[in-house]
Design brief:
heterodimer, A: 110 residues, mainly alpha, 5 helices, elongated, B: 167 residues, 7 helices
Chain lengths: 110, 167
């Protein structure tokens, strides 16, 4: 979805035609991740909660989800410049990539 | 030279040793591998969704495929290279690991599926006529692809839990 916003792929497809299914998939993915994440966390809660990388990951999740909601609202507005759309895509990509890297760091180094 | 002997030799190569001996080296290569999966399977997912008739039905299959192909191709390249590097570091353990063997089989299936599909996608019409419900063959191809890649990922995760001894 973010690559489409940034104009990097699926250029002939309408932005909303990508954003709509993507939004649903992201919501589904987040739900599954949240449930399984809580299960993984529960086993060693206090130890994990004190971990700096984990705290970074949680902060990024909050920011990324909030950003996702901002983007979805923005996309339904009829007037939207190409630059704004591209910026939404690039920032979104950076957030999710940062989150993925942080999550990897947590799994692999802790 | 037996396969096992080749694996033993691979573990002595410079790249293998670099990964074995450095915690950060290992973590970085694994992280690249995982992100490569996101870049490859994550992009291919949209082709599969198009095949299933679940998303992007507004555009022809051919166009969706061509647009996403460079991305998932690059993703697969990164995943393959990082995977090869990881293999060299733990070749003998991987060799004996049943999950790895299943993973390899599934990867082979995925490659065959991709080749068969590439012919199919390249031949499909460019007009939006196929915006109607996709044929059964297309749906099966999409489902098959999703199932295989889900299997590969699960096998990969199972490997990480069964290949390394604690401590």
């Amino acid at each position: 979805m973010h690559l489409r916003l940034a104009g990097a792929t699926l250029r002939r497809t309408n932005v909303l035609d990508v954003a709509r299914p993507a939004g649903r998939l992201i919501a589904l993915g987040l739900a599954v991740s949240a449930v399984t994440g809580v299960l993984l966390f529960a086993g060693r809660a206090s130890e994990i909660a004190a971990n700096g990388i984990f705290q970074t990951k949680m902060s990024l999740i909050v920011i990324a989800v909030a950003w996702q909601l901002v983007v979805q609202r923005r996309l339904t507005q009829t007037v939207r410049s190409a630059e704004t759309t591209r910026a939404l895509g690039v920032i979104g990509l950076a957030l999710w990539l940062g989150l993925a890297v942080t999550a990897c760091a947590f799994i692999l180094l802790e | 030279m037996t396969l096992l002997e080749v694996c033993e030799w691979l573990e002595t190569t410079a790249i293998a040793i670099a990964i074995q001996e450095s915690l950060y080296g290992f973590a970085i290569v694994v992280a690249v591998h995982i992100l490569g999966v996101a870049a490859s399977v994550g992009m291919l997912l949209w082709v599969d969704l198009r095949l299933l008739g679940v998303a992007l039905m507004q555009r022809p299959l051919n166009e969706v495929y061509r647009s996403l192909a460079p991305w998932f191709a690059a993703g697969f390249g990164i995943t393959l290279l990082s995977g090869a590097a990881l293999f060299t570091a733990f070749a003998t353990a991987a060799y004996g690991n049943p999950f790895f063997r299943i993973k390899l089989l599934l990867l082979l299936l995925a490659a065959v599926n991709a080749l068969v599909f590439h012919r199919f996608a390249a031949a499909s019409p460019k007009t939006p006529d196929d915006a109607a419900a996709p044929p059964t063959a297309a749906r099966l191809a999409g489902l098959f692809s999703l199932a295989i890649w889900a299997g590969v990922i699960v096998m990969g995760r199972m490997m990480s839990y069964t290949m390394f001894s604690p401590g």
